[in-house]
Structure formats: C-alpha cells, structure tokens
Amino acid sequence: MKGNARNWREVLPVVALAAFGLIWIVPMIWTLLAAFVPTTELLNDSPLVWLQSLHLGAFEDAWQVAPFLRYYLNTFIFVFGLLAIQLVTISLAGFALARMDFRGKDQIFFLFLTQLMVPASILILPNYQTLAKLRWLDTYQGLMAPYIASAFGTFLMRQAFKQVPKELEEAARSDGASWLQVLWHVFLPVTRAPLLAFSIVSVTYHWNEFLWPLLITSSVEIRPLTVGLALLTASSEIGAQWDQLAAGTIIVVTPIVVLIAVVQKQFTSSFMGSGIK
Amino acid sequence: MKSAPTQFDVKQSQGEGRVQVTRSFTLQSAVHSSGAVAYVFLLPSLVFLAVFTLWPIVSVIWSSFRARQGREQVFVALQNYERLFTDPIIQQVLKNTLFYVTAGVGFAVIGGLLLALLLNQGLRNIGFFRFPFLATIALPMVSVASIWLFLYSPRVGLFNEILAGLGLPLSNWLNGRELALPALFVVYLWKQLGYFALFYLAALQALPVDVLEAAKLDGITLWQQLRFIIWPLVSPTTYFVSTISVLGALQQIDHVFVLTTGGPNNATNMSLFYVYEQGFKYFNIGTASAMTVILLAVLMTMAILQFVYLERRVHYD
Q: How many CB atoms lie within 10 A of CB B71?
C-alpha cells in the first residue's frame, strides 16, 4: 500500500506470528473436531459435512467408559486439600525465616534450599519406598506428602513478609498480640498477592501432575484426572476410539483453559515467578 | 561411656536456650522472644522436608551401592555405576537424554526469543495472540500427549492425512526408530516454548527504549539490532532460560509414557523414564538408584552454578 520496503518490514513479523499461532492452534482445533465429529466423517468428508454431523456422542461414551466425575472429585480433593495445607506451612515457615531470630537459622535456610535444587519427580523411587513403609500408598496424604513442605512457597512468603514495615509488627506486639495473631491480622492481609501467585502455580502444577499419582494410586476413589485420562488413552490406542479420547482430553483440560482465560495476566506473572523453582 | 557426655551436652544447650528465652522476655523485646515459637512455626515444613527431600537423597545414594542378588539386596560398591558406561541400553538412554537437553536448550533460546520478539511488536489484541502459547503451558502434559498421539496416528492422524493429500508416502512417526525421538521432542517443544518465550518477553519489555530508538535512527538493520543490541542485553535471561530448560528436559517423562513407553526398542527411553522402568517395572532398585544419583548430581551442579551466577550479578548490579 505505501512503500514496499516498509510494508515488508511490517507484514513479515505479523505473518510469522500468525504461522506460529497456527502451529499451536491446529492441534487444538483438530482435537475439538475429533471429539464433536464422528471419526469416519472427519477422515472421509468435507468440512461442510462435519458441521452437519456435530454430536456429543463421544462425550457420553467417554463419560461412561471412565468415571470422570469421580476423577474430578479426586483431583479437587488432592489439589485444593494440598493447597490449603501448603498455605499454612509456607506462611508459618516463611514468617519464621523472615521475622524471627533463632539458632540454626542459616542451617534451616539451607535445608529449604536443598528442596529448591532437587525436584520431587527425581526422588520418586525412595519416596515410594517411604510411602510403602508408612502404608500411605493409594491415599490422599500419600499424594500430597512430598509437596507439603514447599521451599518455593516458603521463600516467596519470606520475601513478601520481609517487606512489611517493622512498625506494624511492633505495634501489634506491644498490644500483647501473640505471634500467630500478628501473622494472621497484620501480615497475611497485606501479602495476598504472593499467596495468590503461589496458589495459581500450585494448583496448575498439581492439577497436571501425572507420574507420582500414577505410581501411588491404584483405586478409582483416589486416582486423579490425569491418570484416568492416560488409562483411557492406553485403551483407545488399542481400540482406536479416537473420538472418546479427544472428548476425554477436552473434559480434563477445560477447567485449566477457563482458569487461564480468566486470570491470564496474573497467570503470566505467577508462572514467571515459578521459574526460580 | 560415649553416650553419657553427649546427653549432658544436649541438656546443657537446651538449658542455655531456655535461659536465653527468659532473659529476652525480661528485656521486653518483641524480636528476641521469638526463638521457641520459630521452631514451632518451622516444624511442619521441616518434618516433611526431612522425610520427603533429605532422607530420600541419603537413601537413594545408599541404594545405588547395592543390587539384588536372589532375594537380598547386597553391597556391590560401584558396580551399578560401572554399568552406566558399559550397558548398551543405558548408553542409548544417555544419548537420548543428551539430545533432549541440547536440542531443548537450543530451541528454548532461539525459538523462545523469536516468539517473544514476534509477540512484542506492539500489536493490538496481544492477549488474543498470546493465549495459545499460554494455554499449552497450563495444559497437563498427559492431555498434550493424547492430542499428539492422535495427530501422529498412522491411520487417522492429521499428519498422514496431510501427507496423503500431498501425494507423499505415509510415515510411521512414533513407531519408526529414526523419527520417534524427534517426534516426541516436537510435543515437548509445543508445550513448553511459550513458557520460555514468557521470560524473553519480560526481558524485552524491560529494555531501555531510548537505546532502541537511537538504533532505529541510525538506520541499522533488524539483524544488527538483534545481534548487537538485543542479544547482549537479554543475556541474563538467556542464561536463566538455558538453566530451566536443562532442568525441564531432564525431568520429561509424562509424554514418553503416553506416546511411546520408551520404544521402539528404547529409541525414546530417557533419564527419568529409565528410572521408572528399572525401579518399578523390573525392580532393579540399584540401577534405578544409580541413575537417580547421576540426575541428582547434574541438577545440583546446575543449581549451584545458577546461584553463583546470580550472586555475581547481584554484586555487579
């Protein structure tokens, strides 16, 4: 339209981004189609026919083959139960490390640091053995146990608590408030942002977790969504029930996709923080 | 004889602690009266840290020097480690892992920076463009793998549909020795590239605007701008992205599970999957432990290097 050179400079990056986007979008759209269009029509007919034969049959089938409702419940209990416990442990530990003086502080700080260096997934073998000894296999506490102490969360809260002005703390203390009251009434209300950031990272991470739940769960009452989906995948491969598999995948990912669509900005910054992990 | 003085020491030091606490109460100082409370606050975390992070490190090192002999686990010194250099399957596993790590770093840095540059050109509705890349970060790897299993399927997959449409010979994708590992890697990249791009995006948005404006006025080319201005300025991010991409690549397992279970013929078997296979499928605890220890050593070295680097940067800044 204007100068050719300028056009080229402006158009090329947009085209490149669109190409990138297409590579990311096409697999998602193909999955949607596979779930809503019968497989034979998807492979043999034109997109016009696809639109006419949209149906929910695959979802009904998937819902019947795998107890997704139960899996949802299990994932909810695991993810939010763990989060509730973590919020307590990281607040307490973060507070102690940020605002209290005690012997062995440096050594304890270093212990937390170790966890930051060693991701839990590497330690599946010894942790499985520990769980077997505790008789915690196939239980919710077993699912949660390796994550109850969170160095990432503890350091996040420690950093946040350090920034709270000392006067606030001293005013509360001189009024005779206990440490727990100070933490609850003074510190936690002003550190909601890091608590939320930690929550987003924790929920996303554990919602998606696969290996650890796969190893330690064996019953439908404990097994989370991801493991349930993998079982469905394994059976689909044999029977080639692709529409069911696609439907199952959509059932599993929908809440997460909705979550990031709603909190896109918060999600971005939270996940960048988690890179420190 | 030996235990008596130790007990005495412990008692004495506990006593000292109590004395200190009492003394600080009399000083009416809020800060110094926190000693005992601090331990109570730390206790829940410390218990789980000890049982599920520290103890397993000790235990896995111990197990790595042992191997199954009949029904017993016996001490075999470094035998499990020696196998790492001789066993052809382990050689294959290490080769595959190395591919994932090196290709992972390369694509994370180049692809991540490129994607970030594209997202950072000040388009309107950038949230709309950013969404697919964010979505894959948040999706479970198991679901991502399921999606790609469908795409790679020899009979009904999208890729073979496209090849057929173009009149090209069909491919076996995940079942072929040559293509299986790269095909798997594409899945990993599809899920994670947006994550690496996020860090570059933040770095690009923090660049000094006047430098870029001055460069534009000087009429340098896009490539020169990238090579001599942007690249040096985002080097801390490059270092960081490299580190987390190595850590990430070493832990990849979920999609191996869903897509290939390490096959065909170990062509896609890698670090953590090998630990799983040896430990939980064949019950070779010693071999699995030795591999875990190697992974631990690599991860800890990486982490320490990162701390050293950050420390240095903090001093210079």
A: 5
- The predicted model gives B256-285 an average pLDDT of 91
Nearest residue on chain B to A129, alpha-carbon basis = B56
pLDDT, tens digit, for every residue of B147-172? 898 888 887 778 888 888 888 887 78
DSSP annotation of B23? H
B38/chain A closest Cα distance in angstroms: 5
Q: Is residue A238 pLDDT above 60, yes or no?
A: no
Closest CA to A50 of A62, A58, A60, A42: A42
Split at pLDDT 50, 70, 90, the class of A274 is low
The gap between the terminal CA atoms of chain B, to the nearest Å, is 56
> Could you tell me if B8 lies within 8 Å of chain A, comparing CB atoms?
no
Instruction: For Cα atoms A268, A271, A277, give the angle at the middle one, nearest 5 degrees.
Output: 160
State the angle between helix axes of A105-117 and B285-316 in degrees (0 to 180), rounded to the nearest 10. 120
How far does B49 lie from chain A, in Å, by closest CA?
A: 6
Return residues 84-143 of A near B (CB < 8 Å): 88-90, 92-93, 95-97, 99-103, 105, 108, 111-112, 114-130
Residues forming beta bridges with residue B72, ordered by sequence position? B69
Average pLDDT over residues B89-115: 94
Hunting for tokens 């294959």 — which residue is that?
A: B92
pLDDT digits (tens, 9 = 90+) for B182-231: 999 999 999 999 999 989 988 888 888 887 777 777 778 878 888 888 89
Q: Which amino acid appears at position A115 of this protein? A: Q
CA distance B219 to chain A (A): 13
Instruction: Determine the residue among A12, A40, A102 to mutate to test chain B binding: the one whose Cβ has the most chain B Cβ atoms within 10 Å.
Output: A102
pLDDT for the residue A188: 92
Q: Does A149 touch chain B (CB under 8 A)?
A: yes
